[in-house]
Amino acid sequence: MSPKDSRNQRENDNNQRKNPMVFISLITGLIIATAIGASVITAVILKQSSTGGKNSTASPTPTVAELPTTSPTPTVAASPTASPTPTVAETPTASPTPTVTESPTASPSGTAVSLLDTECLSSTPGVEQSLVKPREPKNIAIGGEALPEIAYLFSESSEPYPYISKSKAAGVSCVLNSKFRQLNLVVGINGKHLYARQDDKIVLDVSVDNKLIATKDLTITAKQVLNINVENARSVGIKASCLKENYNSYCPYVAFVEMSLR
Prior knowledge:
This protein is of the alpha+beta class and about 260 residues long. Helices cover about 25% and strands about 30% of the residues. It has five helices and 16 strands. A hairpin with a 2-residue loop joins strand 11 (about 200-210) and strand 12 (about 210-220). The longest helix has about 55 residues, at about 5-60.
């Protein structure tokens, strides 16, 4: 064997001895790498599970479902309930102010008040009460009408009829106040009176504050209407005088159908 061949032989032997060692080293390195890889994977898994657990426990924070429960703020349905403000229907009920119907009701000056409801004093000598209001109005004949008699004026009396004497006029004075503006009188002679005659004539005088304002001749044929201005007057006076041209010196009393103050 040449030296070269022996050298090659030795190298082959050495290579054969080295090959098992290299294989063993490779196997060992693979095992170590596998172990390291497994430990790394395990550590990663453990880390993920731990962080995952923390995240899952931290999930209560997102379940801050207290935000939906803050929906009571939008359901500030106090705004709709604030609708009572528009339905301040107190404004329509404040319509009582325009309906200050005190104006129409302030028409007491326009509503009639009877002169009989004022203070009236007799101005007929010897007669305490010359203007009499019957207990109940009765119908009398004046001209061709049947009218309700509310009062009568006389100066003498004998049963069953009061009358006016030719020698004594019948008179009355009544107190007024400033709220009255007009006195309306409807008067006449009761045609059913015992002393009623076709030729009867009674002169009726009306005075305001002792000043003669109107004069009317009364007969049994017709009623007379007088509208007397009594604005700012303190009193009104009514006097009836009997005028006779025959032997009979008596006239029927003066009958009043209306005596209204407005």
